[in-house]
Description:
By secondary structure, the chain is α/β, with parallel strands linked by helices. It is built from nine helices and 13 strands. A hairpin with a 3-residue loop joins strand 3 and strand 4. The protein starts with 17 loop residues before the first helix and ends with a strand. Mean pLDDT is 81; it is low at 4-22 and 24-62.
Amino acid sequence: MAATGQSGDARSVRDETAQDAGCKDSRRAAGEADPTAAAGGESAFGQARTSASDARGNQRGSSEAACLDWRDGVVPVSTRFDDPYFSLADGLAETRHVFLAGNGLPGRFRDGFVIAELGFGTGLNMLATLIAWRAAGRPGRLFYRSFEAYPMAAPDVARALRAFPEAEAVAAPFLAAWSAGHSRFVDDGFEAEVLIGDARELLPRWEGRADAWFLDGFAPAKNPELWSDALMAEVARHTAPGGTFATYTAAGHVRRALAEAGFLVTRQPGHGRKRHMTTGVLGG
């Protein structure tokens, strides 16, 4: 989960990690235009991010780093939003239930399939998708685009992923690239890019359209900006015909906003103790 940009609270971070300094002055940049919507070559793990002047038209933005507390030394919690980054009851299982199964994946995978996400967080959703893509054995390429306002430092991402050995087992190339300051990664035909900054500013300028959306911001009560009517309308505007979304929340105002944006919205059984989640398909 992650957030749109807003001021953080004054709560202290108890664990002294590399992230602590980053809360004060760390900045990470990423492109706002998407290579799925423009010509250009493929980037590999470890390749430097493209500059603002390259042929892909990739402009760079900046954003503050994530500020964390650690629950039981295992679960990262945002001190800005007082919300955990993943489910306390098996976050990887929740990802598979909510975001993969909720979007009909991996069954819908095909060459050129595009997934977009609000809230990159620890990268757990991306890694779960990479595992599913590899297992599906589809030919071609899958594109993963994630919007993140407060990127986590690589040591904190690595620490969080230790809770999920299956995801950690495929995370090394991603972590190496992330540690080096890169935001675009390719592995086994799986191309991911993290677009860093406020989604309310970046998404309207994004040139791509997603076949499936992972709506994984912090809880609507904690981070309402990421669930606004205007942003949900942008999600719909950047969805391919017949495209879908899935989210862990069943908040009424979120369901209404997505319905008004043009999705046929359905409330589904949630993961674990959570009674409901929400899915939808773009109508018309």
